[in-house]
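pls design
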């Protein structure tokens, strides 16, 4: 695979900025974009990454802090290593990883879903999150001062599945296990790990929910959506907690969506 491509929102080749530094994966659209903009507004310097160059450049241009855009496939180990090298080359350290990159599959019965779709979803949602966390641990251990924070994007599917969603649901349940294991492992190194489970944040991916999506009882019903900026505020809250405080798991969801109980 080719090496990640990099652009910067500002020309600072001769300077080494100081301050809080974040990496946001899947930062070109939806939740990742909203969180990148919120972090930038709060003064975070950032590397925003994803697969689509033009979308990343648009996000970088809208940020008010220094932001580097890097094209990355998080399921490729060598590209993840290059991503973190780009971050440390530019900013000198990494204080926050928002493990946001993810994908789903077509809502079809499990026996009709191509195996390649399963492999791709596991590659991005689970392996990609693990690879990025692995690289973050290595960097956060060796930097001075050491430590940092990782926020994994889980999903309400980490709690309750939707019909015909076995690859996505399985990976999001696995993210919960990953979060807990890494939270335990990070204690001795000042690395704090938490998870945010998001339900029905308005974005291009959730647009069909406004008109109708399959329910567990076989019906098709519209579901409420929430402003993606409310998710960004929640992520920013988690990101800016002091090092001795952690939100291990947070659920932020559109009020009225069919998650809590019947109807």
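designed seq:
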């Amino acid at each position: 695979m080719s090496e990640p491509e990099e652009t910067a929102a500002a020309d600072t080749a001769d300077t080494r900025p100081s301050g809080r530094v974040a990496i946001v994966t899947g930062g070109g659209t939806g939740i990742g974009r909203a969180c990148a903009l919120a972090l930038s507004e709060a003064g975070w310097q950032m590397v925003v990454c994803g697969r689509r160059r033009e979308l990343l450049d648009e996000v970088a241009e809208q940020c008010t802090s220094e932001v580097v855009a890097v094209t990355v496939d998080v399921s490729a180990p060598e590209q993840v290593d290059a991503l973190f090298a780009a971050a440390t080359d530019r900013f000198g350290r990494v204080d926050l990883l928002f493990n946001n990159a993810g994908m789903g599959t077509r809502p079809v019965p499990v026996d009709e879903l191509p195996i390649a779709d399963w492999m791709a979803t596991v590659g991005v949602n689970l392996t990609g999150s693990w690879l990025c966390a692995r690289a973050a641990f290595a960097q956060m251990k060796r930097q001075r001062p050491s430590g940092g924070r990782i926020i994994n994007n889980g999903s309400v599917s980490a709690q309750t599945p939707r019909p015909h969603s076995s690859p996505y649901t399985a990976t999001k349940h696995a993210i919960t296990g990953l979060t807990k294991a890494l939270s335990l492992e990070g204690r001795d190194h000042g690395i704090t790990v938490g998870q945010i489970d998001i339900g029905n944040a308005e974005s291009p991916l959730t647009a069909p929910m406004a008109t109708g999506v399959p329910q567990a009882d076989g019906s098709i019903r519209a579901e409420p959506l929430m402003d993606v900026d409310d998710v960004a505020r929640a992520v920013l809250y988690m990101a800016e907690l002091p090092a001795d405080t952690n939100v291990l798991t947070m659920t932020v969801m559109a009020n009225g969506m069919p998650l809590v109980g019947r109807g």
